[in-house]
Amino acid sequence: MEDTYLYSTHDWNTFRSTFGLASKYPFGTLTQASPKGFIHCANPGFQGQSTDPGYGDDGEAAIDVEWASAAAPNAAIVLAACTDTTTTFGGLIALENTLNGPAGDLPSVVSISYGEAEAVNGQSANEDAASADLGNPATHGIGVSGFTSTPYNVSVGGLDFGYTALGVPASTYWSAKNSSTYSSALSYIQEIPWNDSCAGALLAAALGGTPLAECNSSQIAPSNAPLNFLANAVGGSGGPSGCAIGSPAVSGVVSGSCRGYSKPSWQYGLLGVPGDGVRDIPDVALFAANGIWDAYYVVCWSDPNTDPFVGGGFTCNGAPSSWAGFGGTSVSSPIMAAIQALVNQKTRARWGNPDSVYYSLARNEYGASGSSSCNSTTVNKTHNGCVFYDVTQGDNVGACTSSGAKIYNCFLPPKDTYGVLSVVNWFNVPAYTTTTGWDFPSGIGSVNAYNLVMDWPAY
Hints:
By secondary structure, the chain is of the alpha+beta class. The protein is 21% helix and 10% strand. The protein is globular and about 55 Å long. Mean pLDDT is 87; it is low at 50-55, 129-135 and 221-227.
């Protein structure tokens, strides 16, 4: 679901042919459409950086269709897009019209990978509803995306590879040479939460200090320079729903009559899920890193306009290492949607919201105390029966600052520019540290696509 068409559909074909998908899985298709319905959906055409200086949404569209096709290479993919209006994001219009369309035209899976905080989105838009991935240092405490916090969808978080951060040689997981279609991974790769913030314990340790010291060092945050990238809240974590319903007393801040969605029944009973009475996210997580530990996603994106984040003018010629590089839950979300499409294909059924099955499988796997055999770090990397890998190393703590509002979950000493964000205070164990079972940084954990499909129950 988008608010733009692709810069070039040829990019999708180049992606598939380069990685050997087109020849091995020849039935995959891509179409672009502006779904008609109760809400007027104007054809947006290409809405890239020529009309939107900065990060163009056509890059987002390229990510979605290419990596969805990588995970479900024979799938019929439809990029549904509508023009933004003065009040509504075009992707939401496309979603509304698609879901309310004729029964025979309904897709088996839909995916949207944009985000907006619940308190900013507002109750009406929250109830319309994916994951947010980029931002500045937090100034008003924890707030989750209203696009992903509803109990009616799968919320997908973000992970990173952990070998560099934990000092494991890259040769453990990667071949020295690529295959003809650029594959080189030797096995499943141990994972940690995706967290680019200086407040993350692993990154701070790699820089030689503690989160508070590193976030306030001249290397990260010089007093006479703009905010350094590492001080931004860039990661793929979740949190408790806090302002899905009601109205904030302060615009954009969880306050006033705000309250979260009630915890859905299927989320109870899994080791690690908080007894907070509200919907907690994410549900599952997949690799979403953008390069902080030397790994990211490559995307064929030939839009020649420059972009301040990733550059521009990529031709998609030659090795994919010269292509555009991306990360974020913008990539993990369409991949998870594609994995669900594989489930639907195998079972020959549409599963609607599959969360109840995910949590049931996780309860069976983790039991009352967790499954050491499915720990991401120690699991048998080449042969195992794990549906989910339990991520237990690293955290997703971000940096925070004060902007005149009292932040109850930010530890900010008077002498420092940046603090450390946590659901609890600094003197307790932060809720954004990974634990055995479900946790805010990784949800149930990473997904083994093959085992999930094969272990899915009969309809």
